[in-house]
Write a structure and sequence with these properties.
Structural class: mainly alpha
Strand content: under 5%
Number of strands: 0
Helix content: over 70%
Distance between the termini: 20 Å
């Protein structure tokens, strides 16, 4: 595989791990009647649960990206972090433009924004810790 394509696959895989795992878990939580069906609003405790598993999936996304990176794993992690940060900013903007408090607590989309970069960093560190020869970001 060409290096540019391999790099794109690494970053896309990390993003998809995060996004798909979040969407599938949300659906499972609704199917299992843990989360209420739309348009009923969830409790703050359920939003905290969603933020927690999204953080774990974001760590996993950082891990996958670094493990798949053909070279310069930190560069790939930071590209994923930038994409995640952009997606979170769009989510915060959408929250306020669509309806704000009617959708849920304001802290929830802000927590997704705040946790994006640190969680990807943790996943990247975990991946690099399992493969010592990839620690050098040359």
């Amino acid at each position: 595989m060409k290096p540019l394509l391999a790099s794109a696959v690494a970053v896309a895989a990390g993003f998809l791990v995060t996004a798909v795992a979040s969407v599938v878990t949300d659906a499972a939580m609704r199917a299992g009647s843990i989360f209420p069906s739309s348009p009923e609003r969830m409790s703050d405790a359920l939003y905290a649960l969603a933020a927690a598993y999204r953080a774990l999936f974001t760590v996993a996304g950082g891990y996958v990206t670094v493990r798949l990176a053909p070279s310069r794993p930190w560069r790939h992690a930071w590209i994923l972090a930038g994409i995640g940060l952009l997606a979170a900013v769009i989510g915060v903007i959408a929250f306020y433009r669509i309806g704000g408090a009617q959708l849920g607590p304001a802290w929830y989309p802000l927590s997704i924004l705040i946790e994006a970069v640190p969680c990807i960093w943790v996943g990247a560190r975990m991946a690099l810790g399992t493969n010592a020869e990839r620690r050098v970001d040359a």
